[in-house]
Structure to design on (277 residues):
């Protein structure tokens, strides 16, 4: 378990009080699911004590840290102070604070990932994707997709291949965990057929026409992502026809795969709860 480094605690303790009241600090730490009641003392003392408590009493300090700084890290670049974050002035100060956070995270070998995630660069390589899926570690699965996104501009073909591989791994893990018969040909389209049939994603099994259209679209998207990897990604030779794959194409494939992955996992978990009850 990676703790919030002391230099990060120092930067947050020094700077958060400049932009938050006692009440808004309480709300922010509550949103981040930090443990316990608000500590007593001044705002800097409160922030420092609460972050130290996070390290001591939780097994997910970096997850809580990500939620605490999310609003600052994803603050839009505003040229004017007229439309400040949460209606408050001092936008330039918050942007400077964001720069300080990025700098201290980098110094501590940490990286902020959009969506309130903090990566230390070690937890994902040390665990297989199958383990992440079995443990339903959604933040780290999200990070896998963000890793693909990070390669979109420089290596779009590799990014498409990575997104497809994540989907394929989720579907294969589902088949194994649910003791279903693995298809002879274990490509994305074939393992997807087994999963969607078992989860009831076939449009013909629904009465609602709107849901039918959505599920038909999802089926087409998964098939399209698999074909895209075959024809345009780095996973296969190019042959005579060369795709002019651009970052926006790769980004579309990755975001689509991410949405489908979370939908499958959430449906899977919901069904497990129904069976247990």
């Amino acid at each position: 378990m990676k703790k919030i480094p002391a230099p990060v605690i120092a930067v947050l303790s020094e700077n958060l009080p400049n932009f938050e009241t006692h009440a808004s600090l309480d709300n922010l730490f509550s949103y981040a699911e930090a443990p316990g009641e608000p500590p007593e003392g001044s705002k800097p003392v409160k922030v420092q004590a609460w972050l130290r408590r996070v390290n001591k009493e939780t097994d997910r300090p970096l997850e809580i840290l990500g939620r605490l700084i999310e609003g600052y890290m994803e603050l839009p670049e505003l040229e004017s102070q007229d439309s400040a974050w949460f209606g408050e002035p001092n936008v330039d100060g918050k942007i400077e604070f964001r720069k300080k956070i990025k700098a201290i995270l980098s110094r501590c070998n940490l990286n902020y990932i959009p969506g309130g995630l903090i990566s230390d660069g070690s937890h994902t390589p040390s665990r297989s994707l199958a383990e992440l899926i079995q443990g339903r570690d959604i933040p780290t699965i999200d990070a896998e997709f963000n890793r693909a996104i990070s390669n979109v501009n420089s290596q779009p073909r590799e990014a498409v291949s990575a997104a497809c591989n994540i989907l394929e791994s989720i579907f294969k893990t589902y088949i194994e965990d649910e003791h279903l018969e693995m298809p002879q040909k274990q490509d994305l389209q074939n393992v997807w057929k087994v999963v969607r049939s078992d989860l009831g994603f076939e449009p013909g099994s629904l009465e609602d026409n709107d849901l039918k259209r959505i599920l038909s679209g999802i089926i087409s998207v998964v098939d399209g992502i698999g074909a895209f990897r075959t024809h345009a990604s780095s996973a296969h030779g190019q042959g005579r026809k060369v795709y002019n794959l651009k970052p926006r194409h790769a980004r579309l494939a990755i975001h689509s795969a991410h949405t489908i992955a979370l939908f499958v996992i959430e449906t899977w978990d919901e069904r497990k709860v129904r069976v247990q009850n």
Q: What stands out?
A: The longest strand covers residues 111-113. Residues 6-119 form one domain. Residues 20 and 132 are 36 Å apart (CA to CA).
